[in-house]
Amino acid sequence: MSLGESLKNARAMNNLTQEDVAKKLYVTRQTVSRWEQNKTVPNIFVLQELSNLYGLSIDDLLSETKEKTQEKEEGKAMKKINWFALFGVVCFNVVLFSGVAIAAIGLLIALWAITLSFVVSPLLLLGANVTGLQNFEMLQTVLSVILCGVGVVLYPFSKKVTHYLIEFFSKYVKYNQKTIYN
Length: 182
What we know:
Layout: H1 3-13, H2 18-25, H3 29-36, H4 44-54, H5 58-76, H6 83-131, H7 138-180
Helix pairs in contact: 1-5, 2-3, 6-7
């Protein structure tokens, strides 16, 4: 239901004529008629007066209009493809953004590799010492424990960076979808 239909129904429920509403709001009957025919829309101050007059909230007057608008937008989404936008998005993504994405993914993989290798460094040192591949030295053990601490500190940072990049790329894909579809 449109705003005009809501206004017309509210007026009818209060047993008022267009002339009665016009007199109470200090407008012409034709103005009320135009509102009810959806030719014009009353401003927010007049909507407040109409809601007071009809004993309804502004939300009640507009709620069905908002629902209808949302349904139209949802139905309209992804119906037509803007071919020029599609071509532009593909060219931009292939030429420029793919390089940035590959670099970001490479840096993210390197960050996780460093973090994980730091965390498991004491286990690697222990394994090397137990199997006899390397002699046990106290300095290496201390440095290994320090690297493990650095790895533990890097873990939340790595997690945040990963989450941020995933969020960024998903928003970027949604933005491209909005650009392509009218």
